[in-house]
Amino acid sequence: MSNLATRKGTFRPLMLLIAAALVIGAAGSAGAAGIPQIVHARQIHFKTLGKTAKSLRDQIWRSHPNWNVVANDANQIERLASALPSWFPAGSGKGHGIRTRASATIWSQPQQFARAARRLFNRAKDLNQAAAGRNLRALRLRIRALGQACASCHRRFRAHSSWW
Amino acid sequence: MNATGATHERVRVWDFPTRIVHWAIVILFGICWWTGETEHMHWHRIAGYGVLGAILFRLGWGLCGGETARFRSFVRGPAATFQYVRKLLGHDRADPPSPIGHNPLGALSILAMLGLLLTQTVLGLFAVDVDGVASGPFARWVSFATGRRFAHWHAANFHLLLALIGMHLTAIAFYRFARSENLLPAMIHGFKWRTPSAGGPYFAPWWRAALLAAGIATCLALLLNIRW
Ligand code: HEM
To answer: What local confidence, expressed as pLDDT, does residue B192 receive?
Structure first.
């Protein structure tokens, strides 16, 4: 019994030391990996945005859309669209060891980029309104307008390649 | 070669539907290329449906069209193809081995071209653009991730098509400069110069092309507008 207790006693400082080293190491590498993580998170947000837009678009192909799905999707699109500008902090472009198609013009033409993001947000609001009003005709027009807001920003601010 | 006009006669080789389909595919392919690269998906879809319709028409015309358009008249087995290649490389220009219509190598290129173009359009029908909105009409039956995979195959197959088109143009240049056979005008006006022989190829009546085109247009319109 006492044997075990002493062994525990000698192990405890060692364990603490290892734990502390791990925590410090993790914190340090988190700091260094900040930009790859930001880029990765941004791409996941965009994938969710794409998935949600597709889900909503699939509904308007039906003769009887599921309006609950439509309302949820439209809400989420508006939420994501309002957050979009925060996914592009300065310095989160290419050259950090993670593939990204974020063009350098995002940061060299910040006003135009902000305007593109703003247009998306406005169209997402219109879409959400049509969804809330259960207006299928308006919804069809507005999902197309939303898609155009995505595409026009991609044409301008999404580079053709991940590398240059 | 047609300078010695007395021993040559002008024969009709390609009928109107075959030529129209050929040039329609060239133009629509160019439109698809440009609109695909610049993300003008509305026009991309419309031009893509045009390519799909033209390919289906050409496949049908290969079964019921004029002689030079029919697969039966120009698709050959490996032995005949190999023999043709040996003659072609034999520099025996006095004996042009080319049949009046497609030669056996050209037949392979046509099959590859029709196959890749059909693949391209079918992949496009299921493809999902990054925005999730501008997608093919059948994309609603697949998930976003699967639709994106289709889009990547669509892009990869496009590069195969570019390679094949490069080969096609190289072959035409080869015949022009190495064998003094100018193939291009015949695909525009439909005639070739030939030594007189036992009659030209037979052609199909125009109403057959009209029926086939109308049938394909109707089927496509129905297929692309399914609601469920
Ligand atoms: C011969 C016919 C076609 C050609 C040559 C063609 C060519 C192309 C090209 C070059 C791209 C851009 C790929 C990239 O670099 O990202 C593209 C994208 C696309 N095409 Fe087509 N296409 C054809 C037919 C179709 C058809 C019939 C549809 C369906 C309606 C379609 C739907 C799409 C979609 C949704 C995209 C966007 C995918 C992406 O984001 O990469 N295409 N196509």
So the answer is: 83
A78 Cα: distance to centroid of ligand 1 (angstroms): 28
Q: How confident is the model at residue B164 (pLDDT cuts 50, 70, 90)?
A: very high
Task: Supply the CATH number for residue A20's domain.
Answer: 1.20.120.10
Alpha-carbon span B77 to B83, nearest angstrom = 10
Q: Which residues of B touch A62 (CB under 8 A)?
A: 227-228
Task: Note whether residue A148 is domain-resident.
Answer: yes
Shortest alpha-carbon distance between residue B169 and chain A (Å): 28
Nearest chain B residue to A58, by CA: B140
Backbone dihedral angles phi then psi of residue B33, each to the nearest 5 degrees: -60, -55
User: Residue B227, SS3?
Assistant: coil
Q: Is residue B29 part of a domain?
A: yes
- Interface confidence (ipTM) of the complex: 0.73
Query: Could you give the number of structural domains in chain A?
Result: 1
The rounded Å distance from CA B49 to ligand 1 centre is 11
- Residue span of the structural domain in which B44 resides: 17-191+203-224
Centroid of ligand 1 to alpha carbon of A72 (angstroms)? 30
Angle at which helices A67-83 and A110-132 cross, to 10°: 160
| Cβ pairs A/B, distance under 8 A | 62
> Which distant-in-sequence residues (6+ apart) come within 8 Å of B84 by Cβ?
B76, B97, B103, B104, B105
* Structural domain count of chain B: 1
Range of the domain at A32: 3-85+95-157
- For the whole model, what pTM was predicted? 0.83
